[in-house]
Amino acid sequence: MPDTPEPAPAPPAAISRRRLLGTAGATGAAGLAAGATGGTLFGTAHAGSGTTPLTSVGSTAHPFHGPHQAGITSPLQAHGHLIAYDLDPGTDRRAAAALLRRWSATAAALMAGRGEEADGTHMSLDAGPCALTLTFGFGAALFDTLGLTDQRPTALAPLPEFSNDALDRSRSDGELFVQIGADDALVALAALRAVRRAALGTATPRWQMTGFNRTPGATAHPMSQRNLMGQIDGTNNPLPGDDDFDRRIFVPADGDPPWMAGGSYAVVRRIRMLLDTWEDLPVADQERVIGRRKADGAPLGGDTETTPVDLTALDDAGNPVIPVNAHVRVSSPETNDGATMLRRPFSYQDGLLPDGAPDAGLLFICWQADPLRGFVPVQRKLDRGDALSPFLRHEASGLFAVPGGAAEGEYVGQALFEG
């Protein structure tokens, strides 16, 4: 009988690569939309510069309690669920408050990796927290339903209609909003199930959407995400440590109404990408539509991904290097009176449409202290002349007031329901 050779030990280089394939995206923060990143569609979180062991995919945890809710500045996760609820008929303020209390307790346990306290499915029983976050918000209709119309923020006024909108109202808006993200699919789904179980008898799902990003550790070194159009996202995004970050993203302590102190406003849009049409374009034409090179994300006329976008650069014929209708130019803060927003989207793929085209695109989520100064002016500009618009369909929309984080012993939204 021939001898069976022993497997050769892995060379040192293999060990190094194992570490390199750790959670490259586990550090860093979600990016702030800017002209250098392509505005409202492009500009997702740029990964940090360090590498971490593979085990950190499971062990990474974000705190539930704090001045702001998790899931706003937390690094992008690989799996996400967005779900909106409407209160069941007859649900009063006390019952709604009890639901937020249950949701908060559930979120605190799951985010700490204590699934046995809240996960009746046991789907996440063997896993760590896996960077799980749960974020809760309120739609405009909630305030009328609960007799809290005088507490509805002015910033929660309905978004204007845009000419490119083709909105399905059954998948838009909602009285309650929940965003779930995690780096493990089962952990994210277990959280979704736990949220739904806690809502039984009080609120009914209105719509649900599921998305994804590149898994932490999928690249040999930390780098920006790519979206479904194949474009690199997340270049040169300002970080939460920047001087004006809190002012642009979070409602100040003396903001109006007082219960929104430390909170933010989330705009949620389901944007289908016409991928078949897009992929038929030559790469050079795609780059002119976006204003960036596809291979490395560098702005047209620039050297690397992190080269600042130069909107004044001209070619030898005197024409703008970045076309006048390129997405990065039209959405740039420089062309929108400084309007910016924190973007934290997920991609989605929901099978095929009846014509065989992919039902795929972006679950766009952006955060700002005031959507009338963040999302609205940029989207109006894009609506009037963005070269990318012919390749997109805006199919669902929502605006939600997301209150500040809960302190120990409190629940999200307590200042609204009990203030």
Automatic annotation (TrEMBL):
Enzyme Commission code(s) on record: 1.11.1.-
Q: Which ranges carry the Dyp-type peroxidase C-terminal domain?
A: 225-406
Compartment(s) where it occurs, according to its Swiss-Prot or TrEMBL record:
Cell envelope
Q: What does the record give as the function of this protein?
A: Involved in the recovery of exogenous heme iron. Extracts iron from heme while preserving the protoporphyrin ring intact.
User: EC class of this enzyme?
Assistant: oxidoreductase
Protein name, per record: Deferrochelatase
Family assignment from sequence similarity: Belongs to the DyP-type peroxidase family.
Q: Supply the gene name.
A: efeB
User: Residue ranges of region Disordered?
Assistant: 53-73
Q: Which reaction is this enzyme known to catalyze?
A: heme b + 2 H(+) = protoporphyrin IX + Fe(2+)
Q: Which Pfam families match?
A: Dyp_perox_C, Dyp_perox_N
In what residue span(s) does the Dyp-type peroxidase N-terminal domain sit? Answer: 69-213
- The organism is Streptomyces cheonanensis
Q: Where is the signal peptide?
A: none
Tell me the classification of the organism that encodes this protein: Bacteria, Bacillati, Actinomycetota, Actinomycetes, Kitasatosporales
Listed A to Z, the keywords are:
Heme, Iron, Lyase, Metal-binding, Oxidoreductase, Peroxidase, Signal
Question: Cofactor(s) for this protein?
Answer: heme b
| Primary localization | other
Q: What does the note accompanying the cofactor annotation read?
A: Binds 1 heme b (iron(II)-protoporphyrin IX) group non-covalently per subunit.
For the keyword Glycoprotein, the answer is: no
